[in-house]
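forwarding from the other thread:

> can someone predict this with flavin-adenine dinucleotide?

sure thing
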Amino acid sequence: MTNKKEFLKEVILWTSLFVVFVLAPLFVAVIGHQEAYRGFWIEFGVALGFIGIAMMGLQFVLTARFKNVAAPIGTDSLLNFHRQAGYVAYFFILGHVIVLITADSEFLYFFDPGVNAPRAVALVSALIMLTMLVVFTIWREKLRIPYEWWRLSHGLFAFLIIFIGLSHMLMVGFYISELWQQVLWIFLVGFAMLLLIHIRVINPYKLSKKPYKTTGVWQEAKKTWTLEIEPDNHSGFDFLAGQFAWLTIGESPFSINQHPFSFSSSADVKGRYQFTIKELGDFTSSIKSIEAGTPIYMEGPYGAFTLNPEPREAFFVIGGIGITPVISMLRTLKDRNDNRKMTLIYGNPDTESIAFREELKELEQKLNFNVVHVVENPPDDWTGYEGFITEEILKTYIPEDVTGTDFYVCGPEPMMDMAEMTLRDWQVPVFKLKSERFNIV
Ligand SMILES: Cc1cc2nc3c(=O)[nH]c(=O)nc-3n(C[C@H](O)[C@H](O)[C@H](O)COP(=O)(O)OP(=O)(O)OC[C@H]3O[C@@H](n4cnc5c(N)ncnc54)[C@H](O)[C@@H]3O)c2cc1C
Protein backbone atom coordinates (compact mmCIF):
# COMPACT_ATOMS: atom_id res chain seq x y z
CA MET A 1 0.00 0.00 0.00
CA THR A 2 1.69 3.16 -1.06
CA ASN A 3 -0.34 5.95 0.43
CA LYS A 4 -2.69 6.64 3.28
CA LYS A 5 -5.75 7.29 1.09
CA GLU A 6 -5.36 4.00 -0.75
CA PHE A 7 -4.81 2.15 2.54
CA LEU A 8 -7.91 3.66 4.18
CA LYS A 9 -9.97 2.94 1.07
CA GLU A 10 -9.01 -0.74 1.20
CA VAL A 11 -9.64 -1.03 4.96
CA ILE A 12 -13.05 0.67 4.70
CA LEU A 13 -14.02 -1.39 1.65
CA TRP A 14 -13.18 -4.77 3.17
CA THR A 15 -14.59 -3.94 6.62
CA SER A 16 -17.85 -2.69 5.10
CA LEU A 17 -18.15 -5.77 2.90
CA PHE A 18 -17.63 -8.02 5.93
CA VAL A 19 -20.28 -6.18 7.98
CA VAL A 20 -22.75 -6.15 5.06
CA PHE A 21 -22.35 -9.89 4.50
CA VAL A 22 -22.73 -10.65 8.20
CA LEU A 23 -25.87 -8.52 8.62
CA ALA A 24 -27.44 -9.24 5.22
CA PRO A 25 -29.17 -12.45 6.43
CA LEU A 26 -31.18 -10.39 8.94
CA PHE A 27 -32.53 -8.15 6.19
CA VAL A 28 -33.19 -11.10 3.92
CA ALA A 29 -35.02 -12.83 6.80
CA VAL A 30 -37.50 -10.02 7.45
CA ILE A 31 -38.44 -9.57 3.79
CA GLY A 32 -41.80 -11.26 3.33
CA HIS A 33 -41.81 -12.49 6.92
CA GLN A 34 -45.41 -13.08 8.04
CA GLU A 35 -45.22 -15.19 11.20
CA ALA A 36 -46.31 -13.67 14.52
CA TYR A 37 -43.82 -11.82 16.74
CA ARG A 38 -42.65 -14.20 19.51
CA GLY A 39 -41.14 -11.72 21.94
CA PHE A 40 -37.80 -9.90 21.99
CA TRP A 41 -35.57 -12.65 23.42
CA ILE A 42 -36.75 -15.32 21.02
CA GLU A 43 -36.34 -13.08 17.97
CA PHE A 44 -32.98 -11.93 19.35
CA GLY A 45 -31.86 -15.54 19.84
CA VAL A 46 -32.82 -16.36 16.25
CA ALA A 47 -30.94 -13.29 14.97
CA LEU A 48 -27.80 -14.51 16.80
CA GLY A 49 -28.08 -17.79 14.93
CA PHE A 50 -28.41 -16.07 11.55
CA ILE A 51 -25.40 -13.86 12.22
CA GLY A 52 -23.39 -16.81 13.57
CA ILE A 53 -23.98 -18.95 10.49
CA ALA A 54 -23.24 -16.03 8.14
CA MET A 55 -19.94 -15.48 9.97
CA MET A 56 -19.14 -19.17 9.70
CA GLY A 57 -19.79 -19.03 5.95
CA LEU A 58 -17.51 -16.02 5.58
CA GLN A 59 -14.73 -17.94 7.32
CA PHE A 60 -14.48 -20.07 4.19
CA VAL A 61 -14.01 -16.94 2.07
CA LEU A 62 -11.27 -15.62 4.37
CA THR A 63 -9.27 -18.83 4.07
CA ALA A 64 -9.90 -19.45 0.37
CA ARG A 65 -6.52 -17.92 -0.58
CA PHE A 66 -8.11 -15.28 -2.81
CA LYS A 67 -5.19 -13.08 -3.75
CA ASN A 68 -7.39 -9.96 -3.98
CA VAL A 69 -8.70 -10.45 -0.45
CA ALA A 70 -5.30 -11.22 1.08
CA ALA A 71 -3.28 -8.63 -0.82
CA PRO A 72 -4.35 -5.43 0.97
CA ILE A 73 -4.40 -7.04 4.40
CA GLY A 74 -1.57 -9.59 4.40
CA THR A 75 -2.03 -13.33 4.82
CA ASP A 76 -1.02 -13.45 8.49
CA SER A 77 -3.37 -10.58 9.41
CA LEU A 78 -6.14 -12.18 7.39
CA LEU A 79 -5.70 -15.49 9.19
CA ASN A 80 -5.52 -13.68 12.50
CA PHE A 81 -8.82 -11.97 11.64
CA HIS A 82 -10.21 -15.39 10.61
CA ARG A 83 -9.29 -16.73 14.06
CA GLN A 84 -10.87 -13.81 15.95
CA ALA A 85 -13.99 -13.89 13.75
CA GLY A 86 -14.22 -17.64 14.43
CA TYR A 87 -14.32 -17.04 18.20
CA VAL A 88 -17.02 -14.39 17.74
CA ALA A 89 -19.06 -16.70 15.47
CA TYR A 90 -18.76 -19.43 18.14
CA PHE A 91 -20.25 -17.13 20.78
CA PHE A 92 -23.05 -16.04 18.43
CA ILE A 93 -24.02 -19.67 17.78
CA LEU A 94 -23.68 -20.61 21.44
CA GLY A 95 -25.68 -17.46 22.29
CA HIS A 96 -28.37 -18.56 19.83
CA VAL A 97 -28.83 -21.85 21.71
CA ILE A 98 -28.58 -20.42 25.23
CA VAL A 99 -30.84 -17.40 24.63
CA LEU A 100 -33.56 -19.47 22.95
CA ILE A 101 -33.56 -22.17 25.64
CA THR A 102 -33.51 -19.56 28.41
CA ALA A 103 -36.34 -17.61 26.79
CA ASP A 104 -38.44 -20.74 26.32
CA SER A 105 -37.38 -24.17 27.56
CA GLU A 106 -39.63 -25.72 24.89
CA PHE A 107 -36.69 -25.21 22.51
CA LEU A 108 -34.93 -28.08 24.29
CA TYR A 109 -36.99 -30.44 22.14
CA PHE A 110 -34.45 -29.79 19.33
CA PHE A 111 -31.98 -31.81 21.39
CA ASP A 112 -34.44 -34.52 22.41
CA PRO A 113 -33.66 -37.81 20.63
CA GLY A 114 -37.15 -39.01 21.55
CA VAL A 115 -38.64 -36.31 19.30
CA ASN A 116 -36.21 -36.59 16.37
CA ALA A 117 -33.07 -38.68 16.93
CA PRO A 118 -31.08 -37.73 13.75
CA ARG A 119 -31.73 -34.03 14.37
CA ALA A 120 -30.73 -34.25 18.04
CA VAL A 121 -27.53 -36.15 17.18
CA ALA A 122 -26.64 -33.72 14.35
CA LEU A 123 -27.20 -30.59 16.46
CA VAL A 124 -25.30 -31.94 19.48
CA SER A 125 -22.45 -33.07 17.17
CA ALA A 126 -22.32 -29.63 15.54
CA LEU A 127 -22.00 -27.96 18.96
CA ILE A 128 -19.31 -30.41 20.05
CA MET A 129 -17.37 -29.95 16.80
CA LEU A 130 -17.68 -26.17 17.09
CA THR A 131 -16.28 -26.30 20.61
CA MET A 132 -13.49 -28.62 19.46
CA LEU A 133 -12.61 -26.17 16.66
CA VAL A 134 -12.12 -23.42 19.21
CA VAL A 135 -10.36 -25.55 21.83
CA PHE A 136 -7.98 -27.17 19.30
CA THR A 137 -7.14 -23.78 17.81
CA ILE A 138 -6.33 -22.16 21.15
CA TRP A 139 -4.53 -25.15 22.72
CA ARG A 140 -3.20 -27.02 19.64
CA GLU A 141 0.41 -26.85 20.81
CA LYS A 142 -0.39 -27.72 24.44
CA LEU A 143 -2.53 -30.65 23.25
CA ARG A 144 0.37 -31.69 20.97
CA ILE A 145 -1.84 -31.92 17.89
CA PRO A 146 0.36 -31.97 14.75
CA TYR A 147 -0.33 -28.92 12.58
CA GLU A 148 -1.37 -31.00 9.55
CA TRP A 149 -3.94 -32.99 11.56
CA TRP A 150 -5.26 -29.84 13.14
CA ARG A 151 -5.66 -28.26 9.69
CA LEU A 152 -7.41 -31.34 8.28
CA SER A 153 -9.82 -31.64 11.22
CA HIS A 154 -10.41 -27.87 11.15
CA GLY A 155 -11.62 -27.98 7.54
CA LEU A 156 -13.65 -31.15 8.02
CA PHE A 157 -15.40 -29.94 11.18
CA ALA A 158 -16.15 -26.54 9.62
CA PHE A 159 -17.60 -28.27 6.55
CA LEU A 160 -19.87 -30.51 8.66
CA ILE A 161 -20.93 -27.70 11.00
CA ILE A 162 -22.05 -25.42 8.20
CA PHE A 163 -23.85 -28.30 6.49
CA ILE A 164 -25.74 -29.14 9.70
CA GLY A 165 -26.40 -25.43 10.29
CA LEU A 166 -27.96 -25.01 6.86
CA SER A 167 -30.07 -28.18 7.21
CA HIS A 168 -31.27 -26.95 10.62
CA MET A 169 -32.29 -23.58 9.18
CA LEU A 170 -34.14 -25.14 6.26
CA MET A 171 -35.93 -27.63 8.50
CA VAL A 172 -37.00 -24.97 11.01
CA GLY A 173 -38.04 -22.80 8.06
CA PHE A 174 -38.77 -19.79 10.26
CA TYR A 175 -37.65 -16.55 8.56
CA ILE A 176 -36.76 -18.48 5.41
CA SER A 177 -40.19 -19.73 4.45
CA GLU A 178 -40.06 -18.25 0.94
CA LEU A 179 -38.58 -20.45 -1.77
CA TRP A 180 -36.21 -17.71 -2.97
CA GLN A 181 -34.83 -17.33 0.58
CA GLN A 182 -34.15 -21.06 0.78
CA VAL A 183 -32.48 -21.07 -2.64
CA LEU A 184 -30.38 -18.06 -1.64
CA TRP A 185 -29.18 -19.75 1.56
CA ILE A 186 -28.42 -23.02 -0.19
CA PHE A 187 -26.50 -21.10 -2.85
CA LEU A 188 -24.48 -19.05 -0.34
CA VAL A 189 -23.66 -21.89 2.02
CA GLY A 190 -23.00 -24.18 -0.95
CA PHE A 191 -20.60 -21.57 -2.33
CA ALA A 192 -18.75 -21.39 1.00
CA MET A 193 -18.42 -25.18 1.04
CA LEU A 194 -17.22 -25.18 -2.57
CA LEU A 195 -14.38 -22.85 -1.56
CA LEU A 196 -13.07 -25.53 0.76
CA ILE A 197 -13.32 -28.10 -2.02
CA HIS A 198 -11.48 -25.61 -4.23
CA ILE A 199 -8.51 -25.43 -1.84
CA ARG A 200 -8.35 -29.10 -0.97
CA VAL A 201 -9.22 -30.68 -4.33
CA ILE A 202 -9.25 -28.30 -7.30
CA ASN A 203 -6.08 -26.39 -6.40
CA PRO A 204 -4.00 -29.57 -5.83
CA TYR A 205 -5.34 -30.97 -9.10
CA LYS A 206 -4.17 -27.81 -10.93
CA LEU A 207 -0.80 -28.05 -9.16
CA SER A 208 -0.39 -31.64 -10.34
CA LYS A 209 -0.36 -30.30 -13.92
CA LYS A 210 2.49 -27.89 -13.20
CA PRO A 211 5.07 -29.71 -11.10
CA TYR A 212 8.53 -28.40 -10.11
CA LYS A 213 11.66 -30.38 -9.42
CA THR A 214 14.47 -29.93 -6.93
CA THR A 215 17.75 -28.73 -8.42
CA GLY A 216 19.73 -28.51 -5.19
CA VAL A 217 19.83 -28.17 -1.41
CA TRP A 218 22.70 -26.54 0.47
CA GLN A 219 23.44 -25.31 3.97
CA GLU A 220 23.11 -21.57 4.50
CA ALA A 221 23.72 -21.31 8.27
CA LYS A 222 23.28 -23.40 11.40
CA LYS A 223 20.20 -25.65 10.88
CA THR A 224 19.24 -23.52 7.90
CA TRP A 225 19.05 -24.87 4.34
CA THR A 226 18.36 -23.40 0.94
CA LEU A 227 16.16 -25.42 -1.38
CA GLU A 228 16.26 -24.57 -5.07
CA ILE A 229 13.61 -25.70 -7.53
CA GLU A 230 12.75 -25.18 -11.18
CA PRO A 231 9.60 -25.70 -13.26
CA ASP A 232 9.29 -29.16 -14.79
CA ASN A 233 8.30 -28.48 -18.40
CA HIS A 234 6.38 -25.23 -17.92
CA SER A 235 7.31 -21.60 -17.43
CA GLY A 236 6.53 -21.25 -13.69
CA PHE A 237 5.18 -17.95 -12.40
CA ASP A 238 6.43 -14.51 -11.38
CA PHE A 239 6.42 -13.28 -7.79
CA LEU A 240 7.14 -10.04 -5.96
CA ALA A 241 10.14 -9.91 -3.63
CA GLY A 242 8.85 -10.61 -0.11
CA GLN A 243 6.05 -12.95 -1.16
CA PHE A 244 5.72 -16.63 -0.23
CA ALA A 245 4.42 -19.89 -1.68
CA TRP A 246 2.91 -23.10 -0.29
CA LEU A 247 5.16 -26.10 -0.95
CA THR A 248 4.26 -29.77 -1.05
CA ILE A 249 7.23 -32.07 -1.40
CA GLY A 250 6.96 -35.56 -2.84
CA GLU A 251 4.72 -37.45 -5.18
CA SER A 252 1.29 -35.99 -4.52
CA PRO A 253 0.04 -32.38 -4.38
CA PHE A 254 -3.00 -33.71 -2.46
CA SER A 255 -0.84 -34.37 0.62
CA ILE A 256 -1.94 -32.53 3.79
CA ASN A 257 1.74 -31.68 4.33
CA GLN A 258 1.70 -28.28 2.62
CA HIS A 259 3.89 -25.56 4.17
CA PRO A 260 4.36 -21.83 3.47
CA PHE A 261 7.85 -20.44 2.75
CA SER A 262 9.01 -17.03 1.55
CA PHE A 263 11.02 -16.86 -1.65
CA SER A 264 14.64 -16.05 -0.84
CA SER A 265 15.82 -15.65 -4.46
CA SER A 266 15.58 -12.51 -6.55
CA ALA A 267 12.19 -11.87 -8.13
CA ASP A 268 14.06 -10.99 -11.32
CA VAL A 269 15.68 -14.41 -11.77
CA LYS A 270 13.16 -16.33 -13.89
CA GLY A 271 12.68 -20.08 -13.85
CA ARG A 272 14.61 -20.77 -10.61
CA TYR A 273 13.20 -20.32 -7.14
CA GLN A 274 15.02 -20.54 -3.83
CA PHE A 275 13.59 -20.98 -0.33
CA THR A 276 15.73 -20.79 2.78
CA ILE A 277 14.34 -22.94 5.54
CA LYS A 278 15.15 -23.24 9.23
CA GLU A 279 14.80 -26.59 10.98
CA LEU A 280 11.91 -26.31 13.41
CA GLY A 281 9.83 -29.49 13.32
CA ASP A 282 9.42 -32.70 11.29
CA PHE A 283 8.92 -31.13 7.89
CA THR A 284 11.57 -28.42 8.03
CA SER A 285 14.09 -30.93 9.44
CA SER A 286 13.57 -33.13 6.36
CA ILE A 287 14.65 -30.39 3.87
CA LYS A 288 18.35 -31.26 4.10
CA SER A 289 17.66 -34.81 2.88
CA ILE A 290 15.73 -33.82 -0.25
CA GLU A 291 17.50 -35.17 -3.30
CA ALA A 292 17.94 -33.44 -6.65
CA GLY A 293 15.05 -34.32 -8.97
CA THR A 294 12.50 -34.72 -6.14
CA PRO A 295 9.11 -33.41 -7.33
CA ILE A 296 7.73 -30.35 -5.58
CA TYR A 297 4.35 -28.64 -5.96
CA MET A 298 4.28 -24.90 -5.47
CA GLU A 299 1.12 -22.84 -4.97
CA GLY A 300 1.46 -19.08 -5.08
CA PRO A 301 2.56 -16.42 -5.02
CA TYR A 302 0.87 -15.02 -1.90
CA GLY A 303 1.52 -12.24 0.56
CA ALA A 304 1.59 -8.48 0.92
CA PHE A 305 4.98 -8.21 2.65
CA THR A 306 6.41 -6.69 -0.49
CA LEU A 307 8.68 -3.84 -1.51
CA ASN A 308 7.31 -0.44 -2.27
CA PRO A 309 7.65 0.01 -6.05
CA GLU A 310 8.58 3.64 -5.33
CA PRO A 311 12.24 3.97 -4.25
CA ARG A 312 11.49 5.12 -0.70
CA GLU A 313 13.81 4.57 2.24
CA ALA A 314 13.36 1.14 3.88
CA PHE A 315 14.00 0.09 7.49
CA PHE A 316 13.97 -3.66 8.30
CA VAL A 317 13.71 -5.14 11.79
CA ILE A 318 14.39 -8.84 11.33
CA GLY A 319 14.99 -11.81 13.61
CA GLY A 320 16.44 -15.19 12.56
CA ILE A 321 14.80 -16.87 9.59
CA GLY A 322 12.65 -13.74 9.06
CA ILE A 323 15.54 -12.68 6.83
CA THR A 324 14.23 -14.74 3.87
CA PRO A 325 11.78 -12.20 2.38
CA VAL A 326 14.34 -9.44 2.97
CA ILE A 327 17.20 -11.21 1.18
CA SER A 328 14.84 -11.67 -1.76
CA MET A 329 14.14 -7.92 -1.70
CA LEU A 330 17.85 -7.03 -1.47
CA ARG A 331 18.80 -9.41 -4.28
CA THR A 332 16.01 -8.01 -6.44
CA LEU A 333 17.08 -4.40 -5.77
CA LYS A 334 20.67 -5.32 -6.62
CA ASP A 335 19.48 -6.81 -9.92
CA ARG A 336 17.64 -3.54 -10.61
CA ASN A 337 20.47 -1.20 -9.54
CA ASP A 338 18.00 0.38 -7.14
CA ASN A 339 19.79 2.84 -4.90
CA ARG A 340 17.18 3.54 -2.24
CA LYS A 341 18.51 3.89 1.32
CA MET A 342 18.06 0.80 3.49
CA THR A 343 18.90 -0.24 7.05
CA LEU A 344 18.63 -3.79 8.37
CA ILE A 345 18.59 -4.52 12.10
CA TYR A 346 19.19 -8.27 12.14
CA GLY A 347 19.01 -10.33 15.33
CA ASN A 348 20.28 -13.90 15.75
CA PRO A 349 20.96 -16.27 18.66
CA ASP A 350 24.63 -16.76 17.65
CA THR A 351 26.94 -15.90 14.76
CA GLU A 352 26.66 -19.41 13.23
CA SER A 353 22.92 -18.81 12.79
CA ILE A 354 23.36 -15.62 10.76
CA ALA A 355 22.11 -16.57 7.29
CA PHE A 356 23.65 -14.76 4.28
CA ARG A 357 26.26 -13.05 6.49
CA GLU A 358 28.89 -12.74 3.72
CA GLU A 359 26.37 -11.78 1.05
CA LEU A 360 24.92 -9.05 3.27
CA LYS A 361 28.44 -7.65 3.68
CA GLU A 362 28.84 -7.58 -0.11
CA LEU A 363 25.43 -5.99 -0.55
CA GLU A 364 26.53 -3.19 1.79
CA GLN A 365 29.14 -2.33 -0.85
CA LYS A 366 26.81 -2.61 -3.82
CA LEU A 367 23.64 -1.03 -2.47
CA ASN A 368 22.85 2.04 -0.37
CA PHE A 369 22.48 -0.36 2.52
CA ASN A 370 23.66 -0.86 6.10
CA VAL A 371 23.37 -3.97 8.34
CA VAL A 372 23.37 -3.84 12.13
CA HIS A 373 23.86 -7.29 13.65
CA VAL A 374 22.52 -8.04 17.11
CA VAL A 375 23.67 -11.39 18.54
CA GLU A 376 22.32 -12.95 21.69
CA ASN A 377 25.35 -15.18 22.48
CA PRO A 378 28.28 -13.75 20.52
CA PRO A 379 31.87 -15.05 20.52
CA ASP A 380 34.47 -13.26 22.65
CA ASP A 381 35.82 -11.18 19.76
CA TRP A 382 32.37 -9.80 18.82
CA THR A 383 32.31 -6.02 18.56
CA GLY A 384 28.66 -5.54 17.60
CA TYR A 385 25.51 -5.43 19.70
CA GLU A 386 24.99 -8.23 22.20
CA GLY A 387 21.61 -9.58 23.40
CA PHE A 388 18.20 -9.02 21.82
CA ILE A 389 17.05 -6.24 19.51
CA THR A 390 15.86 -3.52 21.88
CA GLU A 391 14.00 -0.23 21.69
CA GLU A 392 17.33 1.56 22.33
CA ILE A 393 18.97 -0.10 19.32
CA LEU A 394 16.02 0.79 17.10
CA LYS A 395 16.10 4.38 18.40
CA THR A 396 19.76 4.67 17.38
CA TYR A 397 19.12 3.78 13.74
CA ILE A 398 15.55 4.79 13.02
CA PRO A 399 15.38 7.47 10.29
CA GLU A 400 14.40 10.92 11.47
CA ASP A 401 11.61 11.26 8.93
CA VAL A 402 9.51 8.21 9.82
CA THR A 403 6.73 9.21 7.45
CA GLY A 404 9.14 9.09 4.49
CA THR A 405 10.27 5.54 5.24
CA ASP A 406 8.75 2.07 4.79
CA PHE A 407 9.15 -0.29 7.77
CA TYR A 408 9.30 -4.08 7.55
CA VAL A 409 9.18 -6.39 10.57
CA CYS A 410 9.59 -10.19 10.48
CA GLY A 411 10.93 -12.60 13.10
CA PRO A 412 10.05 -14.28 16.38
CA GLU A 413 6.83 -13.20 18.11
CA PRO A 414 8.34 -11.25 21.05
CA MET A 415 10.70 -9.34 18.75
CA MET A 416 7.85 -8.49 16.39
CA ASP A 417 5.58 -7.36 19.24
CA MET A 418 8.32 -5.10 20.62
CA ALA A 419 9.25 -3.68 17.21
CA GLU A 420 5.65 -3.04 16.14
CA MET A 421 4.80 -1.36 19.44
CA THR A 422 7.93 0.78 19.39
CA LEU A 423 7.43 1.88 15.80
CA ARG A 424 3.79 2.77 16.45
CA ASP A 425 4.81 4.73 19.57
CA TRP A 426 7.16 6.67 17.31
CA GLN A 427 4.24 7.67 15.11
CA VAL A 428 5.09 5.37 12.22
CA PRO A 429 1.81 5.37 10.25
CA VAL A 430 0.16 1.94 10.17
CA PHE A 431 0.17 1.90 6.37
CA LYS A 432 3.96 2.33 6.33
CA LEU A 433 4.55 -0.67 8.59
CA LYS A 434 4.49 -4.15 7.05
CA SER A 435 4.75 -7.26 9.22
CA GLU A 436 4.94 -10.93 8.33
CA ARG A 437 4.34 -13.54 11.02
CA PHE A 438 5.65 -17.00 10.22
CA ASN A 439 3.69 -18.80 12.93
CA ILE A 440 0.19 -18.66 11.58
CA VAL A 441 -2.62 -20.82 12.97
C1 LIG B 1 4.00 -16.50 5.24
C2 LIG B 1 5.01 -17.45 5.82
C3 LIG B 1 6.29 -17.49 5.32
C4 LIG B 1 7.23 -18.35 5.87
N1 LIG B 1 8.50 -18.35 5.39
C5 LIG B 1 9.43 -19.16 5.93
C6 LIG B 1 10.76 -19.18 5.44
O1 LIG B 1 11.10 -18.48 4.48
N2 LIG B 1 11.66 -20.01 6.03
C7 LIG B 1 11.31 -20.81 7.10
O2 LIG B 1 12.16 -21.54 7.60
N3 LIG B 1 10.06 -20.79 7.59
C8 LIG B 1 9.11 -20.01 7.03
N4 LIG B 1 7.82 -20.03 7.52
C9 LIG B 1 7.50 -20.91 8.66
C10 LIG B 1 7.30 -22.35 8.18
O3 LIG B 1 6.15 -22.44 7.37
C11 LIG B 1 7.15 -23.27 9.39
O4 LIG B 1 8.31 -23.20 10.15
C12 LIG B 1 6.97 -24.71 8.96
O5 LIG B 1 5.75 -24.87 8.30
C13 LIG B 1 7.06 -25.59 10.19
O6 LIG B 1 6.75 -26.92 9.86
P1 LIG B 1 7.36 -28.15 10.68
O7 LIG B 1 6.50 -29.34 10.43
O8 LIG B 1 8.79 -28.31 10.41
O9 LIG B 1 7.26 -27.68 12.18
P2 LIG B 1 6.15 -27.93 13.28
O10 LIG B 1 6.85 -28.15 14.58
O11 LIG B 1 5.14 -28.93 12.84
O12 LIG B 1 5.41 -26.52 13.33
C14 LIG B 1 5.94 -25.39 13.97
C15 LIG B 1 5.00 -24.22 13.70
O13 LIG B 1 5.01 -23.89 12.31
C16 LIG B 1 3.67 -23.60 11.84
N5 LIG B 1 3.31 -24.61 10.85
C17 LIG B 1 3.55 -25.93 10.88
N6 LIG B 1 3.07 -26.54 9.79
C18 LIG B 1 2.48 -25.59 9.05
C19 LIG B 1 1.76 -25.60 7.82
N7 LIG B 1 1.57 -26.72 7.13
N8 LIG B 1 1.27 -24.41 7.36
C20 LIG B 1 1.44 -23.28 8.05
N9 LIG B 1 2.13 -23.19 9.21
C21 LIG B 1 2.62 -24.34 9.72
C22 LIG B 1 2.76 -23.67 13.05
O14 LIG B 1 2.61 -22.36 13.59
C23 LIG B 1 3.52 -24.55 14.00
O15 LIG B 1 3.21 -24.27 15.34
C24 LIG B 1 6.86 -19.19 6.96
C25 LIG B 1 5.57 -19.17 7.45
C26 LIG B 1 4.65 -18.31 6.89
C27 LIG B 1 3.26 -18.29 7.43
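The pocket of flavin-adenine dinucleotide is lined by residues 75, 147-148, 244, 258-262, 275-278, 280-284, 303, 321, 324, 436, 438-440 (CB under 6 Å). thats all i got for now
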